[in-house]
Amino acid sequence: MEHHPSASVIPLSVARNPGPLRGTIRVPGDKSISHRALMLASLAEGRTVVTGLLEGEDVLRTADAMRALGATITRETDRWVIDGKGVGALNEPADVLDMGNSGTAARLLSGILASHPITSFMTGDASLRGRPMRRVTQPLSGNGACFATRHGEKLPMAIIGTGDAAPLSYCLPVASAQVKSAILLAGLNAHGKTRVEEPVATRDHTENMLRHFGVGVDVGLTPAGGRIITLEGPTRLVARDVVVPADPSSASFPIVAASLVPGSEIRLPNVGLNPLRTGLFTTLREMGAVLDIENERVEGGEPVGDLVVRSAALRGVDVPANRAPSMIDEYPVLAVACAFATGTSRLRGLEELRVKESDRLSATVALLKANGATVRVEGDDMVIEGRGSAEGLGGGLVETRMDHRLAMSAIVFGLAAEKPVMVDDTGFINTSFPGFVSLMAALGAAL
C-alpha cells in the first residue's frame, strides 16, 4: 500500500462565500526556514531554541531525521530546543530516513549526509518517490559521496558519505535554492572553498541562516545578474536562537482569497518579507491588489512585517520569467487570481513547476479548465484569459494529485467562484499549512 500523508481522503465542496473575509490570523512559520533551522541547529555546537517553527508534517519529518542522526530535539510548549552534534559528528542512523512529502528536506539533507562518513538510506511518500533526485546527486557525487537510487534517479536512495569531502565548484544549470543549499551544506565539512554559481538569485535562507550560526558566506554578482556564493570549510556552527517568521507562501492563499472576495479586509502579522520570496506580492500589486506592509523589521537575519489586505478589482498581468524563483510555489494561487481578473495574464518561464510535488503546471491548468477558466500553455508560459468577475466560474472537480498547494488554491477558487468547487482531497494540506481550513473559517470563510 502506498504511504499517504493524510490518514484518509478528505474531500471538500467549497461554495461562494456569503460575506467578506475579515480579521487577523497568524499563518504558520516559514517552511523553508523551519527545515533549515532544525538542520543547522543539529550541526551547531551548543543549544539552540527555535520559536515559531512550522509544525507541519514535512518539518516534523526533518526533526525525526535529525534525531536519528544524533541531535537531541525536544518540543517545549511553543518552542523547540535542539542540542547539536557539531559538523562532521553526525551518527549513522539505525533505520531508513523517511522524508514524507518534503523535497526540500530530502535534497538539503542529501548535502549534509554526503560529507559525513556514514551510510544512510532515504525514502519518502508516493509523491516524493516520484520526484527526481539527480539534480542533487549528480553534483554531490563530485565531493566523493556515492548514491544508489531507483531507476530514474528516484527514492528510495542509499547515501554513502565521505569523511574526506572535496569542496565543490558548481554552476547551476537551472535556478534552484534546494540544489544550491545542498552543495553549500556539503561544503560545511569539506576541506577548502565551496563555490556555487546560480543564473538568477534564488531564495537565500540557507546563506542568511549560515551567517546567523557564525559561518562566513560570501555573495558576489555575475555580469549576467546571477550570484556566486562561496564558503570555506571545514567550519563550525555556533548555536544561536532562531525566530521563524510566518511563511509568505502560506500567506499567499488568504491574501488572494481576501483580494477576490468582495468587502474583505484581513491582517497577517509577522510575515517573512525576504525579497527573494515576495514575487507574488509584487505581482498582485501590479494587478491592482491592495496589499500594505506595516511594522517592517528584521528578525534572525530575515526581514518581516505585518500585511494588511483589502479586496480589489484585479487586472491581467505579464509576469517575467526572472521573477519565477521568488514565487515558484505561488503560481497555482496566482493563476486562480488571474482567472478572476480583467484581461489576459501571461505567466512566463514555468519549467520548474513540472518537477514540484506534482507536475504543478499541468495540474494548475487542469484546475482552471475544470472550473470554466480559459487557459493554455505556450512552451513554458501559462496564458490565462481572465473573466473580470465570478460569472461562469466554478462547478468542477479538482484533482489535487497529493499536492497541498493545489488543494489550497482550489479552496480559494471556490470561495470566489459563482458555482461550488469540489476538491478531491484536502487531507495532506497539513504538510505545509496545519489548520488552514479552520484559520480561513476564522476569517469568515464558509467551509
From TrEMBL:
Known catalytic reactions: 3-phosphoshikimate + phosphoenolpyruvate = 5-O-(1-carboxyvinyl)-3-phosphoshikimate + phosphate
Origin: domain of life: Bacteria
Binding sites annotated in the UniProt record for 3-phosphoshikimate: 31-32, 36, 176, 178, 329, 356
EC number: 2.5.1.19
Principal subcellular localisation of the protein: cytoplasm
Keyword annotations of the record: Amino-acid biosynthesis, Aromatic amino acid biosynthesis, Cytoplasm, Transferase
Keyword Amino-acid biosynthesis: yes
Enzyme class: transferase
Annotated catalytic residues: 329
Residues covered by the Enolpyruvate transferase domain: 17-438
Pathway(s) this gene product operates in, as recorded in its UniProt entry: Metabolic intermediate biosynthesis; chorismate biosynthesis; chorismate from D-erythrose 4-phosphate and phosphoenolpyruvate: step 6/7
Alphabetized InterPro entries for the sequence: Enolpyruvate_Tfrase_dom (IPR001986), Enolpyruvate_Tfrase_sf (IPR036968), EPSP_synthase (IPR006264), EPSP_synthase_CS (IPR023193), RNA3'P_cycl/enolpyr_Trfase_a/b (IPR013792)
Positions bound to phosphoenolpyruvate: 31, 103, 131, 178, 360, 405
Compartment list: Cytoplasm
Family designation: Belongs to the EPSP synthase family.
Assembly with partners or alone: Monomer.
Function: Catalyzes the transfer of the enolpyruvyl moiety of phosphoenolpyruvate (PEP) to the 5-hydroxyl of shikimate-3-phosphate (S3P) to produce enolpyruvyl shikimate-3-phosphate and inorganic phosphate.
UniProt cross-references to NCBIfam families, sorted A to Z: aroA (TIGR01356)
PANTHER family per record: AROM/DEHYDROQUINATE SYNTHASE, PENTAFUNCTIONAL AROM POLYPEPTIDE
Name the record gives this protein: 3-phosphoshikimate 1-carboxyvinyltransferase
